[in-house]
Design goal:
It contains 2 helices and 16 strands. It is mainly β and 340 residues long.
């Protein structure tokens, strides 16, 4: 009963409406990582007992029990694709690392000229790679850091934009059945495009990633068979506002532009759970808030996991399904994990 009450509190967090939303740079890298994470609403900043990917918190890097390789593939609507790859391993007893990459693409984009005639089918490719390293400071506290590299290739005539980001995280086991996690994401990351080589009115544009701070809580009940997770994210981003103003120079009016930079903040909530009725099999579900309008921006998700030993190796297969917000379609994910 206590666990059910806790679950209810975590899901009630979703009823609070956050502030304004914008489509920021690097959004593909914030969709989640793998079938398990997305199926559980990406609410995994404090999940210290299930070998969660260090993508969610670099402090998880030293908590893995063995080496493993994870490969994930996602199927999305509107000619989009998404793939994940990760290698992780413990180092001695108090350290660990993880190396991963995300690839997102949109294909068969209808390219047209100024007259509206078809020219070519275009595509967009984006990559996010990360190297995480973490340490156990004690039996209760772990910390970690992730170095990230992002690249987006938007147009054949435009040099791909690249940037480096930084994630820092901590996880603290309050009690054997409770833990909290704190993560600062995408520090320093920003894209810069120089379109002057394309002619016309090309210019240099800098687009910063939102700085994110995530606070998560996880609890493990019924001897670890049920885990419940909640997460609150505070997001900060610089927004440039350009306005046109008519001024009088001498006796003639002239239109000028002024640019103002504002810092926008918004909050987002996530929750998820995992139930393991039998060893090697689990059900998962989650809800993630993708924007400020609660009803229009909720992404519900479900999934399951099964694992089997083959000789000395353990193989785990995972499936996740999510409804994307604003009628963007359905998201199917399949992950295969090999424990070495």
């Amino acid at each position: 009963m206590k666990a059910i009450t806790t679950c209810g509190y975590l899901f009630l967090l979703l009823l609070v409406a956050p502030k304004a939303e914008a489509q920021y740079a690097g959004s593909f890298a914030r969709m989640g990582f793998g079938a398990r994470g997305i199926a559980m609403g990406n609410a995994l900043a404090a999940d210290s007992q299930n070998e969660t990917s260090p993508y969610y918190n670099p402090a998880f890097s030293p908590l893995g029990a063995s080496q493993k390789i994870e490969v994930s593939v996602a199927s999305l609507s509107f000619d989009r694709s998404l793939q994940f790859l990760q290698l992780s391993a413990p180092l001695q007893k108090k350290a660990g690392f993880a190396l991963g990459i995300i690839h997102a693409a949109v294909s068969d984009i209808d390219g047209r000229d100024n007259s509206g005639f078809h020219t070519a089918n275009l595509s967009v490719d984006e990559y996010a790679g990360f190297l995480s390293f973490g340490l156990k400071f004690s039996s209760k506290i772990s910390g970690g850091i992730s170095l990230q590299m992002f690249q987006t290739d938007l147009f054949d005539g435009l040099t791909p934009a690249r940037t480096i980001g930084l994630d820092v995280g901590l996880v603290y086991k309050i009690r054997p059945s409770w833990s909290i996690g704190l993560v600062a994401d995408d520090l320093l990351a920003r894209y810069s495009w120089d379109s002057s080589d394309l002619g016309g009115s090309g210019r240099t544009i800098t687009d910063s990633f939102p700085r994110r701070i995530r606070l998560g809580v996880s609890t493990y009940q019924f001897d670890g068979k049920l885990s419940i997770h909640g997460e609150l994210e505070s997001r900060f981003a610089n927004v440039r506002l350009e306005s046109r103003i008519t001024r009088i120079f001498g006796d003639s009016p002239a239109e000028t532009s002024e640019e103002t930079t504002l810092t926008a903040q918004e909050f987002r909530f996530r929750s998820g759970l995992e139930f393991t009725p039998l060893p090697g099999f689990a059900f998962r579900a989650g809800i993630e808030q993708l924007g400020p309008e609660v009803l229009d921006s909720i992404r519900p998700s479900v999934g399951f996991m099964g694992e089997q030993k083959v000789g000395e190796l353990k193989i785990r297969a995972e499936y996740g399904f999510a409804y994307e917000a604003r009628a963007a379609g359905k998201l199917h994910l399949v992950s295969l994990i090999l424990f070495l």
